[in-house]
Each structure stands twice: as structure tokens, then as C-alpha cells.
Prior knowledge:
The chain has no helices and 23 strands. It is mostly beta strands. The chain has one domain (about 1-195): Neuraminidase (6 Propeller). The strands form seven sheets. Strands 3-7-6-5-4 form a five-stranded mixed sheet, with no helix packed on it. A five-stranded mixed sheet has the order 8-14-13-10-9, with no helix packed on it. The radius of gyration is 17 Å and the shape is globular.
Amino acid sequence: MLTVTPEDVTWEEIPQSGDVPSAREGHTLCVVKGRLYLFGGASSPEATECLPGVYSFDIVTLTWECLAVGGVALRALRHCSAAGGENIYVYGGAVEGNPTDDLMVFNTVSLTWTPVKTSGSLPPALWGQSCALVGDQVFMFGGYGAGGEFCKDLYVLNTENLQWQKMEVKGESPAACSGQTLTAHHDKDIYLFGGKSTNEDGTVT
């Protein structure tokens, strides 16, 4: 586990104790009230569902804890997640090689997973998409769908009424991609970086 100091742009390895999670990729990490919450990911490219468990990291004591959680356990690989209030919203991912359109909510107080039904302009089943929360809205972009195509649409989930909206955007839209990062800044701007896309000739960039 590494941290970077913005002032001098220096990476530093953090000493860890407690229930340190196993090595993995494709997981997500969210911060809620000064604690980091990690879940998902896989230790092998052949995995068909994510590793079990939800881990919490205390950034003061540098200690991990494997939480005793309830509800329907998360299974999807390469989902996206965003924290809002005491909840973490998790969309999509892949189970046994197939993308899903499930929305799961993890409550950091009750430590419970809950599948949630939504309405509105529902996004397709996706994996490899990214999302970020601004105010009470989760913005989600990209991903890889069941038809084998990258998604270039922007969807927004209102966390108050659990309604999705497919947004009509202005300007030059990013290329359809998956695996990119999406980061909100000051509840106003969202920054996208990287990702995998396909050129017109079929090559992957």
C-alpha cells in the first residue's frame, strides 16, 4: 500500500497491520468519514467472481479490519463504486464472464449489503465502467457491455429517488472505453483519465 504526498510528489510505502487484504486487482476503494473501504478484486485472471470480504482501513492507526458484514454478498468483478454519506453505491461488474446491471449499496454503519431496484433510463449491463459522486448524484461513464462493445454514454443516478438518467452531453465526448478512472473535484468537476478503447481498424488503445 502506497501514499503520495502532493507537496513534494513523493511515493511512500505505508506500514500495515491487522487483517491485511490479499494481493488483488480490479477491486475498488472508497473513503467514508476518514476510513477506507476495500472490496472486490481478483487474484487470478481466470476468476469468475470477486474475492469475498469487505476490509476497512484506519488511516490514523494504519490498521486493516475484515468486517463482519450482512446481506447479499458482492460477487461482481470490475464493478464501479462511489461513496455518498454513509453509503457506498456499487454498479455492474462481471459474474462468470457476463456483465451485470445490479446496483448494490453497502451501508458503512449497519455493515450490510442491499440490492437496490432503480427506475428511469436504466444503463445496460456493464463491467469496467467508472463512476464518481457529485452532490447526491453518481455519474457513470464507459464500460464493456454484453454485446462486446465499449459504452460511450454518461448515466447519472440520483441517490435520493434512485432514478437513472441518460445524459445529453455537450462538447467532444471521450472515446468509448473501459478501465478508466473518474474522479470528482469540489462537487463540480469530474476528471477522466486513461482507459482502454478500440480504434476504427479494430486495434485496442
